[in-house]
Amino acid sequence: FGEISPMQIAWELDERARAEGRAERSNGAEKFLSEIGWREFSVHLLFHFPDMPEKNLNARFDDFRWGEDDDEAIARWQQGITGIPMVDAGMRELWATGIMHNRVRMLVASFLTKNLRQHWRHGAAWFWDTLVDADLANNSQGWQWTAGCGVDASPYFRIFNPVTQGEKFDPDGDYVRRWVPELAELPASLIHQPWTESGCLEGTGYPPPMVDLAESRQRALAAYQDLPKAGG
Q1: Residue 38 catalytic?
Q2: Is 139 annotated in the active site?
Q3: Which residue among 120, 126, 145, 179 is the active-site one?
Q4: Is 66 among the residues known to form the active site?
Q5: Beta carbons of 117 and 67 less than 8 angstroms apart
Q6: Is 0.70 topped by the overall pTM?
């Protein structure tokens, strides 16, 4: 059926290394293989926990205080009009191409579940509808990992900062300029946080941030700290 097994992929990577006269795989090959491993881990979880697309793997989160379902907030996130450039760039790229880099996936997922405190299932459903590489196991596990309720999940206090992530991974602002053309004329020093300079957004048609990143982070931390302790 055209399927390639993980073992075959690993073998081919080793063959490539030998053909290039190297004793070990390249860093890129190792990273690629680690992602295959994550995929296999996700498939393993879905096999043993078939309700993973709907149910928290960590039962402590059954008592988590998510915010009230906010249709407007979810829609702004989906459409890439949150006022947070890196988030909006990722969501617009997703809608236009069906593709999003894994780093940006984690970033937009963190923003939805932690800064907006919307249930991870809303995000998982949108990714399932829009990603061309949508995979039920990967999608469900990935969203639960980011939200903190999965197996070996990202800790609750890991809340991605879209500004610092943008400055680190898109230092010149090229990614934001491509997908958020309203900000194309801004310098790199402002493109990831244009709201910090008075009048910077005037005439651009781009909205101000829908939430304060620092305040929403503190609200998320407070909500997570109210979770019952493991074994409690």
Answers
A1: yes
A2: no
A3: 120
A4: yes
A5: yes
A6: yes
SS (H, E, C) the chain: CCCCCHHHHHHHHHHHHHHCCCCCCCHHHHHHHHHHHHHHHHHHHHHHCCCCCCCCCCHHHHHCCCCCCCHHHHHHHHHCCCCCHHHHHHHHHHHHHCCCCHHHHHHHHHHHHHHCCCCHHHHHHHHHHHCCCCCHHHHHHHHHHHHCCCCCCCCCCCCCCHHHHHHHHCCCCHHHHHHCHHHCCCCHHHHCCHHHCCCCCCCCCCCCCCCCHHHHHHHHHHHHHCCCCCCC
Q: ∠ CA 162-117-149 to the nearest 5 degrees?
A: 95
Check if 145 is active-site.
no
User: Quick check: is 143 catalytic?
Assistant: yes
Structural contact between residues 194 and 88, judged by C-beta atoms closer than 8 angstroms: no
Of residues 35, 40, 197, 215, which has the active-site annotation? 35
Domain boundaries, the chain: 6-48, 54-232
Q: What averages of pLDDT result for each successive group of 10 residues across the chain (232 residues)? A: 82 88 86 90 96 95 91 98 99 98 96 97 98 96 94 81 98 98 97 96 96 97 81 48
Determine which one of 143, 145, 161, 179 is catalytic.
143
Write the CATH number of the domain with boundaries 54-232. 1.10.579.10
Catalytic residue among 66, 95, 128, 195: 66
